[in-house]
Amino acid sequence: xxxxxxxxxxxxxxxxxxxxxxxxxxxxxxxxxxxxxxxxxxxxxxxxxxxxxxxxxxxxxxxxxxxxxxxxxxxxxxxxxxxxxxxxxxxxxxxxxxxxxxxxxxxxxxxxxxxxxxxxxxxxxxxxxxxxxxxxxxxxxxxxxxxxxxxxxxxxxxxxxxxxxxxxxxxxxxxxxxxxxxxxxxxxxxxxxxxxxxxxxxxxxxxxxxxxxxxxxxxxxxxxxxxxxxxxxxxxxxxxxxxxxxxxxxxxxxxxxxxxxxxxxxxxxxxxxxxxxxxxxxxxxxxxxxxxxxxxxxxxxxxxxxxxxxxxxxxxxxxxxxxxxxxxxxxxxxxxxxxxxxxxxxxxxxxxxxxxxxxxxxxxxxxxx
Length: 369
Hints:
This protein is α/β, with parallel strands linked by helices. About 45% of the residues lie in helices and about 10% in strands. The chain has 2 domains: about 45-120 and about 350-369, 3-Layer(aba) Sandwich (Rossmann fold); about 135-350, Rossmann fold (3-Layer(aba) Sandwich). The chain has helices spanning about 10-15, 20-45, 55-65, 90-95, 105-110, 135-140, 165-185, 200-215, 230-240, 250-255, 270-275, 300-305, 320-325, 335-350, 355-369, and strands spanning about 50, 70-75, 95-100, 115-120, 155-160, 185-190, 225-230, 240-245, 260-265, 310. Helix 7 packs across helix 8 (about 200-215) and helix 7 crosses helix 13 (about 320-325).
């Protein structure tokens, strides 16, 4: 945005800290940067404000913008339909237009007096990776065979997406790697490293996890062949099936159409609290599973039913994951049904030009102002 001519008052990378102690330690600087942003709003009085996601800060900025008489457009809604429903009054008071990327969000907001519009999901319109399978295999040293007459000799590729935040990766990747070891030697595993993570730190975690598995003598006493790759969409495109930590990556897998399993793990206390807090409105048909858990994977919320398995907390074990993944790797009815259901859900995300529609809405707010 800076290269496009934006005046960056605050650098997001300077205030992005994860974890309770890290945030507390940097709180004085973070708050000073927030005050700097508020001062810029009062001083410069922008003609219109575009807020994107990030509710903890943007709700407060919206209050100052509204006081200054600045029209507010919010793109990518906070997940008020899942929890913290009390913040809805802030949207009603402070936001002029809510531009949403999930189909159930528009009726949710409109039923509650908010001018909302579903524009489609930006990921839904992206082109498939242009690289060929053979080129991809050569780039990462993957097993590649053009003659598939003997399927027993073919090695399937499986993508493992452990998350984009370090705490997520620590909680999910070791279990994913243990499941990979249990799968046997007929698979190769692609692990994209998110741009938000340090590659060296990631590599050390992979090495430590595999060392721990060797000590446990897991799965034939050998680790699965792992390949660290750069792009999640390419990995999802070429993988036979995937394991995806709950988050935006599940929408990536949905738009690619790759069969996958959703996993996630937080502390037992956090899980218990979230289980009590998360409640979906009538606009989102959601059924609990056998453990009494509501769906958390966005793909299942978009579909309005459970089309992708979810393994959460205690259910997220290497054994359960390997057992859930195996039917998706061969030409089974389960795989066929999931591919069809993913295509149906993907169609619900389509928009003619999501970003262009947001630009038009900004211009409409400028004209109204």
